[in-house]
Amino acid sequence: MRRLLRPVVVLLPLLAASPAVRAAAPDLWAGVSVPTPEQPRSIGSAAAGCVAGAVALPVDGEGYQVLRPGRNRLWSHPRTIALLQGLGRDFARDGGGPLLVGDLSQPRGGPMSYGHGSHQNGLDADIWFRLPARPLGDAERAAPVPVSMVKGRGVDGKVWTPRHLRLLQLAAARPEIDRIFVNPAIKAEACRTARGDRGWLGKLRPWWGHDEHFHLRLSCPPGDLDCSPQAPVAAGDGCGAELQSWLKRPTVLPDASRDKPNFRRPVLPSSCTAVLDHPARVPAGGR
Question: What is the number of structural domains in the chain?
Answer without folding.
Answer: 1
